[in-house]
Amino acid sequence: MRLLQPNPGFELTYNDVFMVPNLSAVPSRLDVDLTTTDGIGTSLPVVVSNMTAVAGKRMAETVARRGGLTVLPQDIPLDVVASVVDYVKSRHTVYETPITLSPHQTIADALALIHKRAHGAVVVVDEAGGPVGVFEEADAAGVDRFTQLHVVANREVLTLPDGTDATRGFEALAAARQHLALVANEDGRLVGVLTRKGALRSTIYRPAVDAHGRLLTAVAVGINGDVDGKAKALREMGVDVLVIDTAHGHQERTLRAVESARAAAPGAPIVAGNVVTVEATRQLIDAGADIVKVGVGPGAMCTTRMMTGVGRPQFTAVVECAEAARDAGGHIWADGGIRFPRDVALALAGGAANVMFGSWLAGTFESAADTQRDPDGRLYKESFGMASHRAVKHRYRDEAALQLARRELFQEGISTSRMYLAPERPGVEDIIDQIVAGVRSACTYAGAGDLAAFAEQAVVGVQSQAGYAEGLPNGTSW
To answer: Is 302 a known active-site residue?
Structure first.
């Protein structure tokens, strides 16, 4: 990256900077390769933060299917982590996971589950696992909630054979003028569902998979307790990426935790953070980290800067830490402060190999929190920061009452926030589409065919608040 003008002498956020276009020989957005430069196997620069209300098995499966990675929170017991990892690894790389109920379960049962998946359907299956119909929310109109599903399920559903690829699936759905098809094996058992939009996405995106073709997983590990034992156990479960995670990553305990994890899992990609300085980045890489998480205080659920005054404007932190990591043979992930696709592009231009997302994805079907409705009927989910009172109480729930009460006095995050599902983008894949469209286009403006070239060729300038405001769209009349 090159700055358009000399260093302004003050620290920069994403809002403070812009990118100017270069001469480009890239024919199309679709010709841009978004494979990340950190070598972990992701084909999109999208990493879901290890927030309890956001990162769960549905998010992990869906994001990996599109090429990204989800980091499961450190607070999950190991036996639960093992079941989630097994689940994600067993998911199909093209077909979506169905929600299934028996014919004698009710509309109320179906409505309680239907918003857990973006495809918006409950498949009614018989005792042998064969599909007998599909229920969608519109089927509940004017019908008693205790009505059994076999009464209202649509039986006129397109069914495709297992092995149908994305292109043939899309063509079949388009020809039948259907938005959803069931996929069944030779025995008639349900394998998955395929939507027209999902099939289209599978022709564009490449899933993030391990050496065995299974979806990638990542898990966060705290810096306290048996770090090496947990790291070893996670690798034995098949976890692909270990993330040594703490709010203040530049401390001796973090360095020791990285060293322990590296010794216990010598072949694992290890991510560590969070930090915002050159010195901290170098020390974490020297301790054994391959990737450093950069960002203190820019997250939407984080109150660290307002509580403590500690942190650093994110764009400057990314640029300086990325250069330090590159010199030390490592990479960085930009963690926090992302509000728009432009911010993702600027983080990548600044040298980040991947970009982390938390609150932006909290209001989606796939986030871990339960879907609720407000009095106006709008769908929302509750989110909270990982240093909030709510998170601290959960993380240390097994401690003695006095010790827990002492910990609860100190918090640096929002304990509850309503994250509404946007009607135009209610699923995480809808947001990924938006992010990818912006980043691909930014690469073509820079004349870059991949992310490595983008970070090298991008030309960035500094702007005033008026310059930023000038770029904002106007959604209403003048």
So the answer is: yes
